[in-house]
Amino acid sequence: MLQLVNTGRQSIHSYSEIVGKEAINDLKRLAKPLHNLRVLNINATPYGGGVSELLRSVVPLENDLGLKVEWRIIAGDEQFFKVTKEIHDALQGGHNYLNRQHDRETYLNYNFINSHEIDPDNYDIIIVHDPQPAALLDCCRSRGKAKWIWRCHIDTSQPNMEVWEYIRNFVAIYDKAIFTMAKFVPPDFSQPEVAIIPPAIDPLSPKNMALSHKMARNLLSWLGIFPHEIFITQVSRFDKWKDPMGVIKAYRLVKKEMPDIHLALVGSMALDDPSSWATYSKLTVEDRVDPNFHLFTNLTGVSNVEVNAFQRLSKIIVQKSIREGFGLVVSEALWKETPVVAGNAGGIPMQLKGGGGFLIDTIEECADKILRLMKNEDEAHALGVAGKKYIRENFLITRLIKDELELFKSLL
Ligand code: UDP
């Protein structure tokens, strides 16, 4: 069997204080005919990145609603994850660096090995997340009685066509494909049928739960960020599409006018992202020369609660993405009423529709908007408040669960 990820237990009732009793009753009504529905989620990593963030909340909450939901991860070696990262990058519009024969063999071999660890007859629905395990269904001895869903979390609106055509063959045999936005559906996508479901954040998870300023300050001073320091933060994997180098350049421009400003880059090393190490080493050079620049990772003790503190106490959260799937970090920051300056990419604009901050395309614009918000505290505060309201109405986990349950119902 594929390795199971233990997600503990959560109670859906705890959310009624935030979204109202009626919304919870709706979920219970929807879930009733789905009682004991066996759902398997498969992805490539149990931590680091948005997919694991989502599953950590969705799985226990759907279980609490009476479904039988599991989350399992595929196994692979470094070479496999190097290949799947290349596929990920190419599907987001990067170059095709894959070696046609050798890399495709690696991809298929691991999908084949992993597929033999699944018995599709044990499930009613199997959700395969992102391209890493996309070939599992093709490799499985049988599709069994389960309905198979491919859930794409990345921006595949302008994919490298050679790589997309390769992956498309595996995706075409699924019963359904889910994308975050309609515009992410690749140009020639004819099958399977598509559903559009944007992700969401969990307001009660350690990353987003209420945290007093005192506690947040304590957490950060353990990391060397002190209460009097004025800082901005970007929280994201060390991935070229998140443009950490661009953030540093924008920060340097801001620093010319505000020499006391600090920048924190908080990044995580996901299992399926071997290239993050190279980016990390580049950043450590910067870390050594500038005392106002701080680099943190999940490997040095910065976990969910610390990320919560960063997002809460930063003057601004920056997310200078060039390409983005959804960008959960934007909703996470807004939930804490922290304004955001973020790349005009992927799912980010959809989260800033209600206010919340500014969209930028260049390093200079990024620096300008940071300075503007630094100098206008009232505007920054108003944007944060409006942003939170919009996230409450559109991007909380209960809405995501509702969308998923409706989809399951339509499939059965
Ligand atoms: N994250 C984290 N620690 C880090 C970096 C990222 O916990 O050091 C989390 C972040 O808070 C968010 C998720 O990883 O919940 C990233 O999701 P997003 O959709 O922003 O980007 P992805 O990594 O999926 O491209």
What is this entry, summarized?
The protein is of the alpha/beta class. It has helices at residues 16-19, 21-31, 50-64, 78-91, 100-115, 136-139, 161-171, 213-222, 244-257, 276-289, 304-313, 328-335, 348-351, 363-375, 377-394, 397-411, and strands at 3-4, 38-43, 68-73, 125-129, 147-151, 176-179, 193-196, 230-235, 261-267, 293-297, 316-319, 340-343, 357-360. It folds into two domains: 3-200 and 396-411, Glycogen Phosphorylase B (Rossmann fold, 3-Layer(aba) Sandwich), CATH 3.40.50.2000; 213-394, Rossmann fold.
Description:
This protein has 412 residues and is α/β, with parallel strands linked by helices. It has 2 domains: 214 residues, Rossmann fold (3-Layer(aba) Sandwich), CATH 3.40.50.2000; 182 residues, Glycogen Phosphorylase B (Rossmann fold), CATH 3.40.50.2000. The chain is 44% helix and 15% strand. It contains 16 helices and 13 strands. The strands form 2 sheets. Strands 1-3-2-4-5-6-7 form a 7-stranded mixed beta sheet, with helices on one face. Helix 13 links the parallel strand 12 and strand 13. The longest helix has 18 residues. The mean pLDDT is 96. The structure holds uridine-5'-diphosphate.
